[in-house]
Amino acid sequence: MRILLVEDERKVADMIVRGLKAERYAVDVYHDGTSAWEAAEAYHYDLVILDLMLPGLTGTEILQRIRRKNQLVPILILTARDGMADKIRHFETGADDYLTKPFAFAELLLRIKALLRRGPVNRSSVLRVGDLEIDRLSQNVKRGGKKIELTAKEYALLEYLATNPGRVFSRTMIIEHVWDQSFEGLTNIVDVYVRHLRAKLDDASPVKLIQTVRGVGYRLSEEPGS
């Protein structure tokens, strides 16, 4: 496994590199955004660990550029910025995980292993719930034949709910699957994204597919909620 580490704090970068090499990962490390982007453009990586505040190109700019080029490589944001608005913005841009500094290397390693375990997603089938159609190959979403534009995280949340129509998913389950995180501090981000999806999928339709199960979580179903 080859990992791209982009971190301008050299002590932090050295600690991560030592730990990852001890786990037998190959690591390329860059301390500025411009050089990191050149490497990301030239080589295939299995994972990217990306700081946000960098000289040259910012981490946000690198994230945007990588996602235009490669939708599959997992990207873990590593930053001192811990505000919810920052997290939402970067998840929306295409980040797969978000770890704030200071952090324990053991937690970083767990996050890395979780991202690498996911493997390629099978998107060869079409999911249907009522008049909602999700093409997992193209990631196109239609309701009533009308195409709906979704962000990467909105799509990931919708696809997860649609894999088992009628099943209730807790906020923790959704966090762990869609964001690969398990701590309670992020569970309210699920409510934010559910509101986004409802505005795009349900507001114009008399049949509300995204249902809240009070005290439990959410489900996707064409049957009336209980």
Core attributes:
single chain; about 230 residues; alpha/beta; 4-stranded antiparallel beta sheet; about 40% helix; about 20% strand
Query: What's the story with the biggest beta sheet?
Result: 5 strands, parallel
Radius of gyration equals: 19 Å
Annotation, overall tally of beta strands: 12
What's the overall average pLDDT, rounded?
87
The best one-word shape is: elongated
DSSP helical segment count: 8
Our estimate of the beta-strand percent is: 15-25%
Helix content: 40-55%
In N-to-C order, the SSE pattern is: EHEHEHEHEHEEEEHEHHEE
**Order of strands across the main sheet:** 2-1-3-4-5
**Helix/strand class:** alpha/beta
Poorly predicted segments: 120-124
Alpha-carbon distance between the two ends: 47 Å
Characterise this structure.
With 226 residues, the protein is α/β, with parallel strands linked by helices. Helix content is 40%, strand content 21%. It contains eight helices and twelve strands. The strands form three sheets. Strands 2-1-3-4-5 form a five-stranded parallel sheet, sandwiched between helices. Helix 2 (33-42) packs parallel to helix 3 (59-69) and helix 6 packs across helix 7 (171-179). The chain is elongated, with a radius of gyration of 19 Å.
In short:
This protein is α/β, with parallel strands linked by helices and 226 residues long. The protein has helices at 10-22, 33-42, 59-69, 84-93, 105-117, 152-162, 171-179, 188-201; strands at 2-6, 26-30, 47-50, 75-79, 97-100, 126-129, 132-135, 140-143, 146-148, 169-170, 210-213, 217-220. It has eight helices and twelve strands.
